[in-house]
Design goal:
heterodimer, A: 280 residues, alpha/beta, six-stranded mixed β-sheet, four-stranded antiparallel β-sheet, globular, B: 348 residues, 73% helix
Chain lengths: 280, 348
């Protein structure tokens, strides 16, 4: 895995320039700048409430920065026509609601919305893309099933299929593995890696699990308290010092025996207790 | 590659394509037939009964002078008002239930009917206004209530439960206002007010029909045109935003149209309760299709109002009831059933 990242002089497609983000009066991040490398699988990690989901919301124009701006292909994302953005940048939100009594195929078909209009509601192209999206996420056999009756893992695949049907070169995923058991977490991440490798999409995901992030990302962004602490290839970024700095936890970083990527092993309880007393 | 179950793609030259849900289309067709049939039967009902065949002949200009007078001048406007009130209530109920993602988010549950009542009663009781003025009061009352509820329920977007809870609170306060106004009224005004509040189609004539028709011709296509956006909103604001829907604008336009439709329907016939609540739900059970089911709900509303009016005139022999009593009784039973099943499904 190579990182096409740091030091590049050309403008990346999706960037944030000195944005200040917050809800109402509460500021989450100030003067934050970030570039999402094109064609990367970028993963944002950090402790709870560090602002990683907030950053993702800003990048996907769900949250308007109170200062600064988010640029998509050099244009301020907030002033672009909504459907135009939706053809370039997709988002898999954390909380989506499957309408009552909707079938898998019908839900996936809704991803075609930005490509449709009042007089162009269901073109052969729409039908083809929906079929392909279901096939590449492995839910084609479920097409006529109701979304309510699927398992959590299947449902997440269906939502990803919907986002794929949107046919966006950039896809943002907000904690796509939350609430899934370990097998389905890996399943969803494998799917993301496939999409990234075979279809060349730029993926940006917020993940909780640092080891998953290190294994799947080719570009890692570590955040703490609204600031980016480190970014780059996981091999370069994930060190024992960084993990302690970001998550406040002593650990060892070893090579993952399966993939050779960094693997974070938390220090034993007693070792951590010693540090805690030493710090206080 | 499979098409989506139950839908049919209609494609024309020039790259136009439409998706038709066959079952929903059939439901709309059958309900329309039912509404027209019920309307014909209803026109024939009264002190001077006319057979359905004669009603149709008269409508096409072939009846006797007496029949023409009774059908065209007396009963047709009443039935047409009933049909349009049903359409307006059905479609606005579907809009609100979809936006609040809750069957209880209907205009009649969240206080618009009460708001219109306060408006009408203010005119009747405090200003002794006539029926036209009362209708105007009802529209103003409904609109003010709609705006107030929207403003109170708005916090970075309108969310289903907040809308329902704020609406129920508003309904309670407005009911108190109604009671207060009634205590201030003299006997004549109080009687008029109570009759108005029950919701009735008695004595409706062409002067009620035309404004109602104008509102429907303007607003129903507006709502239907935004139907695709509304379908996207059902997946949550974030998902809809991500797909390029202008969420707040869509919601504002649809809610405004729905509030207007409810207010104008209420102005024409009084607050006919529970049609807005039940029509979308019944329509949905017939079409078995996800989404707001706007058109089926509209036609179902028309069927409900006309059939309820027929029951109100026929069920108790000579003693005619206002249509609102019938929809109230039927809708009340339905609401209970809905609360029980929602409770079982763990949604409330």
């Amino acid at each position: 895995m190579t990182s096409s990242t740091s030091g590049s002089t050309t403008m990346q497609r999706l960037t944030a320039e000195a944005v200040t983000l917050g809800y109402d009066q509460r500021i989450i991040a100030e003067n934050l700048s970030v570039e999402i490398p094109d064609n990367s699988f970028t993963v944002i990690v950090g402790p709870n409430a560090c602002g990683k989901s907030t950053l993702l919301r800003a990048l996907s124009r769900m949250l308007k920065p109170s200062k600064g701006r988010v640029l998509l292909d050099g244009q301020a994302i907030g002033s672009m026509p909504a459907k135009k953005v939706a053809k370039t940048l997709g988002l898999l939100p954390q909380s989506s609601i499957a309408p009552d009594g909707i079938t898998v195929a019908d839900l996936v078909a809704r991803g075609r919305y930005p490509h449709q209009g009042l007089l162009r509601q269901w073109s052969p192209e729409d039908e083809r893309v929906v079929g392909e999206s279901m096939a590449s996420t492995g839910v084609a056999e479920l097409a006529d099933r109701y979304v309510d009756e699927l398992s959590g893992g299947q449902r997440q695949r269906v939502w990803i299929a919907m986002a794929l049907a949107q046919q966006t070169p950039l896809l943002l995923l907000d904690e796509p593995t939350t609430y899934l058991d370990i097998q389905h977490q890996i399943d969803v991440l494998d799917l993301c890696a496939d999409l990234h490798e075979t279809q060349g999409r730029t993926l940006v995901a917020v993940l909780h699990d640092l080891n998953h992030a290190a294994r799947y990302a080719d570009h890692l962004i570590a955040m703490r308290a609204g600031k980016i602490v480190a970014e780059g290839a996981p091999q370069d970024v994930v060190t024992a010092d960084l993990v302690e700095g970001v998550f406040g936890m002593k650990c060892q970083v070893i090579d993952d025996p399966e993939t050779g990527t960094p693997l974070v092993v938390p220090a034993g309880r007693k070792a951590r207790a010693r540090t805690a007393t030493a710090v206080s | 590659m499979k098409a989506i179950r139950g839908t049919h793609a209609v494609r024309t030259s020039g790259g136009f394509s439409f998706r038709v849900d066959l079952r929903a289309a059939l439901v709309v067709l059958l309900l329309t037939v039912a509404a027209v049939a019920a309307a014909v039967v209803l026109i024939g009902v009264g002190d001077y009964p006319i057979a359905p065949g004669d009603v149709v002949r008269t409508l096409f200009g072939g009846g006797t002078t007496a029949q023409e007078f009774i059908v065209n001048d007396l009963r047709l406007p009443r039935v047409l008002v009933g049909l349009l009130v049903g359409v307006a209530l059905g479609i606005s109920g579907a809009v609100f239930q979809s936006i609040s993602r809750n069957p209880l988010g209907s205009p009649d549950v969240i206080g618009f009917g009460q708001g219109s009542s306060v408006g009408a009663l203010t005119v009747i009781v405090l200003f002794h206004g006539g029926s036209t003025a009362a209708a105007g009061g009802a529209i103003v009352g409904g609109l003010v209530t709609g705006v107030a509820i929207y403003a109170l329920a708005w916090k970075r977007g309108v969310h289903g439960y907040r809308l329902v809870l704020v609406g129920i609170g508003a309904a309670a306060m407005l009911t108190a206002c109604v009671s207060y106004l009634l205590t201030k009224a003299n006997l004549v005004d109080a009687t008029r007010a109570v009759v108005w509040m029950t919701g009735s189609l008695d004595g409706r004539d062409w002067s009620q029909f035309w404004p109602l028709l104008a509102a429907c011709v303007l607003l129903v296509p507006l709502v239907l045109g935004n139907g695709r956006n509304l379908r996207m909103l059902e997946m949550g604001d974030d998902a809809a935003y991500a797909l390029g829907v202008r969420v707040e604008r869509t919601r504002l336009v649809l809610m405004l149209a729905a509030v207007l439709l409810t207010a104008i329907a209420t102005a024409a016939a009084g607050p006919i309760s529970f049609v807005a609540l039940t029509a979308p739900q019944l329509a949905r059970r017939l079409t078995r299709s996800a989404g707001p089911n706007l058109l089926p709900a509209a036609v179902m509303g028309a069927v409900l109002v006309v059939v309820a009016d027929w029951v109100a005139q026929q069920a108790f022999g000579d003693r005619q009831l206002p249509v609102g009593v019938v929809t109230g009784v039927l809708g009340g039973c339905y609401l209970l059933w809905l609360l029980v099943t929602e409770r079982k499904a763990g949604r409330i």
